[in-house]
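Q: What would this complex look like in 3D?
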Amino acid sequence: MNARIQPVQLHAADDGLKPGETMLMVDKVSLSFGGVKAITNVSFDIRKGEIRAIIGPNGAGKTSMLNVINGFYHPQEGTITFRGKARSRMQPHEAAQSGIARTFQNVALFKGMSTLDNIMSGRTLKMHANFFWQMLHVGPARREEIEHRMKVEEIIDFLEIQHIRKTPVGKLPYGLQKRVELGRALAMEPDLLLLDEPMAGMNVEEKEDMSRFILDVNSQMGTTIALIEHDMGVVMDISDRVVVLDYGRKIGDGTPDEVKANQDVIDAYLGVSR
Amino acid sequence: MDATGARAVSKPVTFPQYLLLNAKRFGGRPAMRFKDYGIWQTWTWSEQRDEIRDLALGLKAMGLTKGERVAIAGSNRPRLYWTFCAAQSLGAVPVPVYADAVADEMAYVLDNAGARFAVVQDQEQVDKIQAMAQTTPALTTIIYDEPRGLRDYDHRMLHEFGAVQQLGRSIAETDRDAVAAWEEAIMASDGSECSAILYTSGTTGRSKGVMLRASASVKAAEDTARFDHLDEHDEVLAYLPLAWVGDHYLNYAQGYVAGLCMSCPESPDTVSQNLREIGPTFYFAPPRVFEGLLTSVMIRMEDAGRIKKKLFHASLAVAKTYGEDILEGRPVSPSGRISYWICDKLVYGPLRNVLGFTRTRTAYTAGEAIGPDLFSFFRSLGINLKQLYGQTEAFLYVTCQKDGDVRPDTVGPAAPDVDIRIADSGEVQFRSPGMFMGYHDAPEKTKETLTPDGWVMTGDAGIFDTRGHLKIIDRAKDVGKLTTGALFAPKYIENKLKFFPNIKEVVAFGDGRDYSAVFLNIDLTAVGNWAERNNISYGSYQELASLPQVYEMMARHVEQVNRDLAAEPLMAGAQVSRFLVLHKELDADDGELTRTQKVRRSFVAERYQPLIDALYDGSTEKFIETEVTFEDGRKGIIRATVRIADAVTYPTATLHREAAE
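A: Here is my prediction, written as C-alpha cells for the whole assembly.
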C-alpha cells in the first residue's frame, strides 16, 4: 500500500468542560455609545456544545452583543465570564487566541486572495515557525505548512468548495463567499463560533446548505455556536436555545418552543404565533 | 486451482476474472485515481484487487450470497466502482441507481430489484433510502462511504464502508483459504450469470431493469476496446452518472477489459478542472456538454482583448477550411497545412489544453443529435470526435463511426459484430453481442421489446444512407402528421432550434394540429451574458425570459430554422408558426426531464395544457400557475403571464405536393 492521505480530524480544543456546562456567561452587561444605549442590563449564558441563537428586530443590539463577546466593544457595566474566567478589557486577538472565532454580517474576506489562501489565513494564530524559516520555506516551516494545508483541505472538503479552491473570492457569488468565511473561522478550530447572520441574502437552497454545515460543525467538531439570524424558520429549526433582544433589553430566553410561546416576544418580533 | 487451471489460461469471461488477470499482467500500473483533499491518489491494479478482495470478503461475511442484488448509489467514487466488482466476484448482481433520483424513484428501483444490500456514498442517499424504508422490505443492510452527519443515526442497518473492508482484511490475514476460495470462485464462473442490472432512464413511463449477462458484456467491451485501440496506457475520467449504461460501459467494462486507468473527479463541480489535470485519452460526453464547452469558450472570447479576439476568429476560419480534411486524412494543399500548423501552435493547441483534450485520441458523443456546426467545430480543432448510437438493452454500442469516416448527420455503420435492420415501420432493430438477457422481473415487457426472431426493437425511427450509415430521425412513435398532411418529426425541429447556443430546451407540438408550434427555454448562461453585455438588467430566469429583446432574439432563431426547413422537401410543411418562451426552466425534479435530461414530452404537454391551447387559439398572452418542486422535495407555485409570438415562415414550392400525399 502506498501512503494515502489520512485526514487529521478537526476538533474544538478540549477545555475540560463537559457538554451542557456553562462556557460563556454574560452578566448584567450594558453598553452605550455616548447617549445611545445599545445594550441594557442583559444576562444570558452559552453552554458547551449547544447552538445558541440571538434574535431580535433591527437595532435590537444583536451585533453589538456579538462584538462585546469577542472583545471588540467593551461594556460599561457587567462582566463576561469565559470558561470560568471573568475577563476585563480583552482585545479581539486575545479572544481569537482563547478560542473564539466569528464571521461578519457583511462578508469580510480578502477579496483578491483565493479561497485556499483566505482559509489558510484563519490558521495564522496556529503557525509557530519564525519569519526566517517561513521566508526560506524549508525545514519546520515547510512541514508546518503541509500540516496546515491538510487541515485547510479538510475544511474545503467539509464545506464542499473544492471547485473554487483557487478562485479569488471577490469573483464568487455571495452565498459561496459566506461559506468561505465560515471556512476561515473553522480554520481556527474554535471552541466558540460566532456567526453574524450567516444566511442573510441567501436563497432557500443556499440556506439549507448553510444550515446543514452549521449543524455538522456542531455535531462533528463539537463546536459551540452562537448565531444571529433573521430567518425565523432557520433559527427555530437549528438552535437549541434562543435569546431575544429588543431595544437592547432581553425580553425572552429559552428553547425555540418557549420563545415562540412568550407573549413579549410575539408582540415585539414575531407578530402572531405561527 | 487445478480444477480451474484450464480456464485460467483461457480468455476471461467476467469482469472479476479480468481484475485478477490485470493484477497479474499490469500489477504495477495505475488502475484508479481519485482526487481527495486536493491531491490525486492512485491505486495500481494489484492494490485495486486487494481493495476489492477486502470488500468482497467483508460483504460475504455479512451474508451477501450468489444471485442477490446490491444497490449502488452516489457520485463517481472508487469505492462505489469497487463495489461493482466485489459484488460480481461473489456472484451477486450490482444495481446502480441514479444518485440524484428522488426518494420514491430510488425506492422503486430498490424494491423492483429486490436489493438486500445498498452501498451508498453519503448521508443524502442514506436519508432517501430510510425515508422509504417501508416500501423496500427486502433491504437489510446499508453501507456508506462518507460518515459525515451519520453519527447520531440508528446504526442497526448502517455500516461504514471502511469497517466492511476492515472485516474482510482481517479475514484475509487470518485465513488464507478464504482468499483462495474467493479467487477460485471467480475463476469457476463460465460467464453465464447476470452481471449487472442497469435501469433505463425512463423516457417513457417507469424505468425498467435491464439484465446483462457477464460473458456478453465482456465480449461487447472487448469488441469496442479493440475497435478504438484501447490499452493499458489509456486514461479516462469517470464523471457521468454511475447508473447510466454509458458510464458503466465506457469506464468500468472497457476499463477492465483494456486494463486502462479510470479517474474519479474530486466532486461533480470540479469535473472541468479535473479533466484538464488528467487529460484523458478517451472521452465521452453527451452533446450538451460539448455545447456547454463551446458556449463557455465563446463567452470568454467575447471578453478578450481585440487582438486576441481577431487572432481567435481568424484561426477558427482556417480550422473550418482545413481542419476536418486534415483530421480525415484527405488531401490538403501545402499552404493550408502550414497555416493550420501555425494556428495549431498558437490557438488550437492551447485551447485543447484548456478544455482538457490535449491527449484525447478518441472522443464520443451520443444520446441526442449533435448540431453539425458544433460537431465540426470540435473536429476542426483536431479532436477526433465521433458519434455512436447505443442502448442500455445493447449494453451500449449499436453503431459507431470509424476513424476517418465520420459525418455529422449519421451515427455511423453497425458496431463490430452487431446486426442492424430497419423494419417496415421504419423502426431500427438490432442483434448484438452485448444484448440483454431480459428485463428484471418483467418477462412480458421483454417480449414486447423483442421480435419473434430475437431482434431488439429500439423504438427509434431511422434510415440507412447510401454508404450504410444509420441516420436516426426521431422516436418512432413521436413521428406524426399535421392536419395539412405534412410530416411532423418533433425532435428534428427541436434539435435544429437547440443548435442555437441561446436556446437550451425546446418542445415542439404539431401532431394532428394545423401547424407546428414550440415552447422554448433560453440558455441562462448565454442569454444572461448577452444581457450583461447589452446593459439589460434582469432579476431571474423568469424575468429574462419575458423580455421583449429576448423574444426578438428567439424570433430571429425560429425564422432561421424555418428558412432551413423550407429548403428540405420532406420537412418544409412543419415550419414553426408560433412560439413562446417558458417562464421556468424544465427540470428533472419536476418530472419534466428524465434524469438523463431528455424532455418527457407527454408530461410537459399535460402540465402546460393551457399554454398549448393558447398557441393554437390565436391569443397573444396567457396566465399560468405552475407547481414546482425544490431539491428538498418541498413544493411552491410559480405564476406568470407568458407571451406568445408569431414567427416568420417561408413559402415552399413543395408544400402542395406534400399536402396531397
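A: To summarize the key features: The longest strand of chain B covers residues 635-646. The CA atoms of residues 390 and 396 of chain B lie 4 Å apart.
Q: Very helpful, thank you.
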